Amino acid sequence: MKSLKTVFLPILLFTISFSILGQVNKKLDDPKSWEVHNREVSFNNGVIHLNSNPGDGILWLKGSDFQNGTIELNIKGKNKIGASFVGVAFNGKDNSIFDAVYFRPFNFQNPEKKEHMVQYIAMPHLDWKTLREGHPGKYETHIAPAPVPNDWFHVKLEINYPKVEVYVNRSPTPTFTIEEQINVSGHGKIGLWVGESSEGWFKNISIKQKKMENYTRILMDVAHNQVFWNDPKSMKLENEKIGRVYMMTEELFKTSRAINATVDYAKGEIDSNMLSDIDILYIHIPKKQYTKKEVKAIHRFIDDGGSLFIIMDSDYWSSLNDTNVNDIITPYGIQYGDAIPDKLPGGHTIKGEIHDKPLKISYHEARKVIGGTPFVYGDELGKAYPAGTFTNTKKGGKIVAMGEAMTSLYMTSWQGVDDYQCQEFMQDVFSWLKK
């Protein structure tokens, strides 16, 4: 696996309360419950006002981590052409990474712009312009009947990840439906959002959240100089790798949907707090040493029943001198060895505990994986050198260790072969790890 062809980006109240299953646990008419970005905010008789400023502004609800449920509120903007954008941010990670549904009041009574009344965006890369050009009419629409531009209007967001339904002025049917959020995480902070040079007014906010217990939580490590995987939303558009990362992320998006999972990114030192609500830790070709504290936290996670999906490859990408991954897996009877001495591309899995049928998978220049129960091999040398193995630990954890990375990069085409079953492989592995 000496070179990989770049794949370009394919598409690119007055009583305010926060409720979980109907039980109020936080009053939000207190300014201390909020943190503001790029705006001045005032609270007056139940109305929250964000002033106008160059750039976008967000008022974040502190400590919020919302995935599924209902967000209701009244919103008011202005009938000011090109300068009134008001809405709700969700899936917030920071001031630049979030999704939002917002409105353009100045288009409410404009018949020539009626299809641009309400908009969904997935920031920072998928703004309104990118989505309109790439998917005209899919992520914005009209409102019928249209609100009065300078008046209050009622908004209800029904979010059931990945679907979002938007109801305006208590309509019994959705005004706007986003079938799939463009987001592998599917949860995060909630905020009140205003766009470029806009001011906005908000009141009567009610948030009712459903529990997230039915979702499998995957944490992908991107803090150890990973060769390929990254959080694409944290990358700059001019980064030469962003097209490949988005391609892989789109495939991971399909995998996570299939197994009812969400994906978050570990961007700092891994510790037990970070792993406390995670089901699967995903480590892919790191090139940096893990600290003793990190190794200990990962061992505690596995010993408490957590699952690990760990992947290395040939020395071309990362050597065992670059990273101490064997410190992580050796206590569980598995370790990485040197290169497998085959040269021909192509690999396969075997029927067993993970796969109910053999799969044809992409493979080229892999690393030996010693121990556990082998289930992945190159085609040239057969079962002489396993390139993938798994184990159930004594304390209930699960580990899949791969010495080949092309399959987990969703490389379905290689040296003239274009029918590798990478998506099926990834779904099977994550499904086994989540059980």
TrEMBL record:
Pfam families: 3keto-disac_hyd (PF06439), IFT52_GIFT (PF23355). Residues 261-335 form the IFT52 GIFT domain. Transmembrane segments: none annotated. It comes from the Bacteria. GO terms for molecular function: hydrolase activity. InterPro entries: AL/BT2_dom, IFT52_GIFT. Residues 32-208 form the 3-keto-alpha-glucoside-1,2-lyase/3-keto-2-hydroxy-glucal hydratase domain. This is DUF1080 domain-containing protein. It comes from Flagellimonas chongwuensis.
